[in-house]
Design brief:
6 strands, 13 helices, single chain, RNA-binding, six-stranded parallel beta sheet, globular
RNA sequence: GGUGCCAUAGCUCAGUUGGUAGAGCAACGGACUGAAAAUCCGUGUGUCCCUGGUUCGAUUCCAGGUGGCACCA
């Protein structure tokens, strides 16, 4: 029997430390499920594990890709599942940790098979969104895929654009690809999440942002400022500094905005995990209970 | 010590000619399938400083108290 231990939770709650302890206890490796720590050009603002932590336990998907790559949850799914195949050849347990909700779902449930989108097409649709407005795209979607039109959030440009991309590219409806059928995995998944008191989480976030700033986040952001149009850099911690560099706000305001946007991100993560019935919750400092829980679940199987 | 001004949401402040109140920010809830640290939707959360008085009814008017600020001593 193979077990994938998922340790997730809101940003800054202490996942890295808990995953490290758990992986060391079971003498195994860590697969990261973090959509920003995969980028080798980013370190400070993404809070990658320290050199010592990376030394102590083998990590995967940290600094493995470039901000220039077009990356997404689907690619992550195929790469990560392939990696897990290899890891499970020599291990019975693997730890998956990170806060990217969709990436975790991609591994646990899978993602529908949808063809890759031509970047030119996406660019064109985004331009049309600018010039003609959302309503024009909505009308086209209504014609091309009435089924999806009836259930999509009609105010959300990203959803409309993506559905249109698929319809135009494939000549089929986007809904015909949306099976939402969970993929069968041969390994068992134990999904856990960490959470603490909200006020405590906020002070952890604030302290971590201050630490990032002290460690040189501003310079790191400046080094990629000229690439700010890349999706990979539409990221909390960077975009606020970008608008400071553009003179839209002060440095102090940028730091406050990073804190606020990180808090909001944590709240969004909690909303997602809270509504996942498979999650078992733990306190961040209590890795012993987490490990006992894992051992008891493994004994059941 | 005296005089004046102020006290309403977590913060900054509106407002109620007496019928228990609303903006901005913060916060909170939700959606989510190739951008997901993305994108989008929703929600006022309140001893109107305290105690009396007047009144059918006081957050609003009156008196006293408390706290803050300013000026005069």
């Amino acid at each position: 029997m193979k077990f994938l231990i998922v340790i997730t939770g809101p940003t800054a709650v202490g996942k890295t430390a808990a995953a490290l302890e758990t992986a060391m206890h079971f003498q195994t490796e860590i697969v990261s499920a973090d959509s920003r720590q995969i980028y080798r050009e980013l370190s400070i603002g993404t809070a990658v594990p320290s050199a010592a932590e990376l030394e102590a336990v083998k990590h995967h998907f940290i600094h493995t890709h470039s901000i220039f790559d077009t990356y997404n949850a689907s690619r992550y799914e195929s790469e990560a599942v392939k990696l897990l195949d290899n890891l499970f050849k020599k291990q019975d347990i693997v730890v998956l940790t990170g806060g990217s909700m969709l990436y975790i779902d991609a591994i646990c449930k899978g993602i529908d098979d949808i063809p890759d989108i031509d970047p030119e097409l996406r660019k064109n649709l985004k331009e049309r969104l600018e010039t003609d407005g959302l309503e024009s795209l909505r009308l086209q979607l209504k014609k091309l895929d009435p089924e999806y039109y009836s259930e999509v959030d009609l105010k959300n440009p990203a959803r409309i654009v993506h559905a249109l991309e698929v319809c135009i590219m494939t000549g089929k409806t986007y809904s015909s690809f949306r099976k939402a059928e969970p993929k069968k995995r041969y390994f068992s998944i134990l999904k856990t999440a960490l959470n603490c008191d909200r006020a405590e989480l906020h002070s952890r976030i604030n302290a971590r942002v201050d630490e990032m700033v002290n460690n040189g986040l501003e310079q790191e952001a400046r080094s990629v400022f000229h690439l700010r149009h890349l999706n990979s850099l539409n990221t909390v911690g960077y975009r606020e500094f970008f608008s400071y560099f553009e003179g839209k706000n002060s440095r102090e305001e940028a730091i406050e905005l990073i804190k606020r946007n990180t808090r909001r991100y944590a709240r969004k993560q909690l909303t997602w995990f809270r509504n996942d019935p498979q999650v078992t919750w733990f306190e961040p400092g209590d890795t012993n209970r987490l490990i006992k829980f894992i051992e008891s679940k493994m004994a059941e199987k």
